[in-house]
Amino acid sequence: MTPDNKRDNKEIIKEKDFLEKEKAIAELFFRNFRKPTEECEKLIAYNSGPNVQKKWSRLSADERVALAKLWRQEPQQPDRFDRDFLDSWSLLYDALLVAGASATVRQAVLDDRLRYTVDGSTFVFQVRPELKDYLEQNMATLQPILRHMVQVKGCDKLRYQITIQ
Fold this sequence. Notes:
The chain has helices at residues 3-30, 36-46, 61-70, 83-99, 103-109, 129-137, 139-152; strands at residues 115-119, 122-127, 157-162. It is built from 7 helices and 3 strands. By secondary structure, the protein is mainly alpha-helical. The two termini are 26 Å apart. The chain has 2 domains: 3-70, no CATH class; 83-162, GMP Synthetase, Chain A, domain 3.
């Protein structure tokens, strides 16, 4: 097996692991948890413990989402994003689902390191390379949502800044 094949297999395993958790992570993300992936791991651990009747691994996707909806964040933390921006981000995520974006792209959308800043009249979007590439390749489809996100923050320009994992 070549090093490239090993890397591909690791990425496939990582993608499968993400797919199993994605709906719960998305639920926690759009509830404005500061670290939705970390919270999802806590949720899974709690629901895999000895005192639960049905283990996480045996729950349906709908049951997992229902548990994520009921999950309480402790200690209570301030919101990660303002509501208008988060609603715009939710539209982008939904558009990626409809468009059949890869799990890697969707994971970049729900990544704990997502950041943005406002620099004068420019909205600076800090994204991982795979999300930037996808956004640029699908700009015609996603442009209305991105434009809305920029306007919500009172800006008239969009700039990407690449973040490294």
